[in-house]
Amino acid sequence: MDAIAKATRQPVRMRGRSYVAFTFCPVVPIAGWLEEIDATLARSPGFFVGKPVVLDLSAVDLSQSAIAHLVASLEQRNIRVLGIEGVDASHVTTSMPPLLTGGRHCVLTQNEPKKPEAKPKLTSLLVESPVRSGQSVVFAEGDVTVLGSVGSGAEIVAGGSIHIYGTLRGRAMAGVNGNAAARIYCHRIEAELLAIDGYYQTAEEISATLRDRPAQAWLQGDIMRITPLI
Amino acid sequence: MAKVLVVTSGKGGVGKTTSTAALGAALAQMGETVVVVDFDVGLRNLDLIMGAERRVVFDLINVVQGVAKLSQALIRDKRLENLWLLPASQTRDKDALTDEGVGSIIADLRTKFDWVLCDSPAGIERGAMLAMRYADEAVIVTNPEVSSVRDSDRIIGMLDSKTVKAERGERVEKHVLITRYDQARASRGEMLSIEDILEILATPLLGIIPESQDVLRASNVGSPVTLNDAASAPARAYTDAARRLMGETVTMTVPLARKSFMNRLLGRRAA
């Protein structure tokens, strides 16, 4: 590789490029038309910022000074005019934006940013393996279903209800976000602790007659009910 | 194809080291080349059970740190020429083990042996994590009591999440080995039954080792129980377990158990 780049003369490169410009078509009285522009700007102040604007004066007959005044008025409103069309060349001075011809009509489409396709929000979580001691499954968005057992020392925390198709030996906390209608269902209950919406019962308080059978826990007011399912 | 097998439990004193030595010796007796690796840095015991404590020069940590070569640290068993021991350091602690160091040693051992048996320390900290880290299979040693079973459940959860295999989306093959099982006490309801343990752990059974004085007798003379008295009940149970590890189908028997009980167990094994 050359350490020093050779200074070579390169031809000036030019490329064509087209842009879509807003075209203003002022009507008489100009003062009234400017008021409308002001109203538009009041609604959305940044609407014309950074957008090319062309003045089409074919509908009005303005003198050179009137054109200069119009351009200045727009500039006051932070609208910079890129070019003028529809007037005689004699009306345009060098201090004004250049005279444009050959503009083609096009339809302006509002380019609103597309909203990303909203994913259907998960409302339940399925756990297919046993939940082992020390593991914690937390799902605040909805229900949790466990196909295996929940080991002693494991915990399930759900915003909604909890369904356990094995033995519940650990802790189950349902309705943690204040959902008092949440319930806990399990195929066999040997739970260490059950909680719904902050109300809880420990293993000691769970009636021994419920042990070893399918059961559900639910809230009746502020009392936790645990009833056999079958 | 070498197999790396970790013998683990979570809880201490359930028989990990005894089981590592017994299974290692049983596999070696079947003609496999076996190395038993002691991961219990700082509290090493495997050398005592293997009767090699007076021949330890270099250890696992020396190899991890590059002080010694693997071949210098490996100790060949005096009774079985295809059984080797890689001892742990007694003067260091588990922080001396590094993930990369253990990984390279295990990779090295894979090229030399049919079986690499890692004797895990108790607990769920660094030593136990690194012992299971590179395992293909795991033997979870469990006593028939609730604390041991719950700890085993915890360890099974970690085998499913913290090992290299698990991180790659594969599965570590797991087996439950029930040790210190006393048929008489279990039938009196003083111990968890085999069914209860398997129901809680939801993991296939590798074997049931009966509570026996032979185990203590063998450790006292520094010999794996399978080598000390091959005819003893625990030795037979360990040998059966080793044959199952080799892929053989061996009828699950609890020494001194009744036939009907064995039949009930057989239904479980397929799970």
Written overview of the protein:
- The complex is a heterodimer of chains A (230) and B (271).
- Chain A has 230 residues and is of the alpha/beta class.
- Chain A has helices spanning 30-43, 64-76, and strands at residues 22-24, 53-56, 81-85, 124-127, 136-139, 143-146, 155-158, 162-168, 171-174, 184-189, 193-196, 199-202, 215-220, 223-228.
- In chain A, the strands form 3 sheets. In chain A, strands 4-6-8-10-13-14 form a 6-stranded mixed beta sheet, with no helix packed on it. Chain A has a 5-stranded mixed beta sheet with strand order 5-7-9-11-12, with no helix packed on it.
- Chain B has helices spanning 16-29, 46-49, 60-64, 70-73, 99-112, 126-133, 146-159, 164-167, 183-187, 194-201, 213-220, 225-228, 233-245, 259-269, and strands spanning 3-8, 34-38, 75-76, 83-86, 115-119, 137-142, 173-181, 205-210.
- Chain B is built from 14 helices and 8 strands.
- An 8-stranded mixed beta sheet of chain B has the order 3-4-2-5-1-6-7-8, with helices on both faces.
- Chain B is globular, with a radius of gyration of 17 Å.
- The relative contact order of chain B is 0.17.
- Chain B is an alpha/beta fold and 271 residues long.
- The chains are: A alpha/beta (230), B alpha/beta (271).
- The A-B interface holds A 129-135, 148-149, 151-154, 167, 169 and B 124, 146, 150-151, 153-154, 156-158, 160, 199-200, 202.
